[in-house]
Design goal:
The structure is a homodimer of 236-residue chains. In chain A, α5 crosses α6. In chain A, the strands form four sheets. The first copy, chain A, has a five-stranded parallel beta sheet with strand order 5-4-1-12-13, with helices on both faces. In chain A, strands 6-7-8-11 form a four-stranded parallel beta sheet. A two-stranded antiparallel sheet of chain A has the order 2-3. Chain A is α/β, with parallel strands linked by helices and 236 residues long. Chain A folds into two domains: 91 residues, Rossmann fold; 101 residues, HAD superfamily/HAD-like (Rossmann fold, 3-Layer(aba) Sandwich), CATH 3.40.50.1000. The two termini of chain A are 28 Å apart. Chains A and B meet through α5, β10 and α6 of A and α5, β10 and α6 of B.
Chain lengths: 236, 236
């Protein structure tokens, strides 16, 4: 075992494409992944899931993972929506949400009247022509458009094939409004720092494991961590 | 009158936002525009419409303009779809179309079996989550993805408000597939050159008139023409 490997005390794990393949049916676990989580925990390594999942609240997400056999609690999940809520409150921003229906409860405590920003998540079926035009019109009507994107992934794999991820729609709105989105979630440095704080391990003693070369591997490396790319999920 | 103005022998006119504001109801002419077309023609100036309109065949487009009172024939319209058809044939490309239903007849003569490229137009209501995912999957499955975009406008004005234009969706697919689209239509140099050839006037004796600073004004200037921006349409 290499010297750096002996120093590892904690793992950040991406979820979709690493632990399971998502899908309209809820998704299916990747063979051996539940056992891997069990063995990581039994070995004494710390573990935190670091996900850009924005199609469900953390509570529902963990419920789904547990039903698939993963021994995971809500505190072991770092996800973009709670991070976005902190940012909105800090800056007095009132969002118009273009997100998945199942994510809306994460923003229950946030003032959404008279929006002065747009929050974009992986809205899936909510990415309609009408909804995209609505978000665009709100942004273009602002003196200084503020677009907050929960991740900037290009695409991901579901059980019925590849799907465009939030990053593609972020680029559409960026171009139309001539603005740059603020990304909350991987690969943002601040997001990895939150995940490490929750993991309780400094970057040089942690490894990120994911299937996305930009969001997972690149983001972690920019934060001073090592990273491993799995050959499941979107890996081609 | 300035010297250059005396040299002008022909005009290229953008249509949406210059002659009329488009809309689900077919659109409404901008006050004075039909009379302006009549006076241009009566003055002896040559005139060609240079449009990125991709929501209808040229025949239907001209029928609509004539019903609004514009004295225009099909030969006086330069539009992206016929230009794209020439390009597809030249390069042996078989397109998957993500375009407006009413534009499909323009591609009647083109082989569309076993697609080896995607042609993107202003598909409007056809910009669904499912259709965008389908176009994305075809592109990402190609050894060398070829994306042809009928224009790269950011947005345009309809009678019920601003709408995202084809350029926004082009950017989404470009980002997801890590490719650069080939743009047919304004502001592509080749497209302006076609319009000038149809106008029968060299660039230094022609003026482009439009409401889009990039597609109309910038594109024409790069082609050696002068250009004027109107204060109707998307002008803000």
């Amino acid at each position: 075992m290499a010297g750096w490997a002996r120093a590892v005390r904690g793992l950040l794990l991406d979820v979709s494409g690493v632990l399971y393949d998502s899908g309209a049916d809820g998704g299916v676990p990747i063979a051996g992944s539940a056992e891997a989580v069990r063995r990581i925990k039994a070995s004494g390594l710390k573990l935190q899931l670091c996900t850009n999942e924005t199609q469900a609240t953390r509570e529902d997400f963990v419920r789904k993972l547990r039903a698939m056999g993963f021994d995971i609690s809500v505190a072991e999940v770092t996800a973009p929506a709670p991070a976005a809520c902190r940012l909105l409150k800090e800056r007095g921003l009132r969002p118009h949400l273009l997100v998945h229906d199942d994510l809306v409860p994460e923003f229950a405590e946030v003032d959404k009247t008279n929006p002065n920003c747009v929050v974009l998540g992986d809205a899936a079926e909510n990415f309609t022509y009408a909804n995209l035009n609505e978000a665009f019109r709100l942004l273009i009507g602002m003196e200084k458009p503020v677009l907050i994107s929960l991740g900037k992934g290009r695409y991901y794999k579901e059980t019925d094939g590849l799907k465009l991820d939030v990053g593609a729609y972020m680029k559409a709105l960026e171009y139309a409004c001539d603005v740059q989105a603020e990304v909350v979630g991987k690969p943002a440095r601040r997001f990895f720092e939150s995940a490490l704080a929750e993991l309780g391990v400094p970057p040089e003693q942690a490894i990120m494991i994911g299937d996305d070369i930009v969001s997972d591997v690149g983001g972690a490396q920019q934060c001073g961590m090592r990273a491993l790319q799995v050959r499941t999920g979107k890996y081609r």
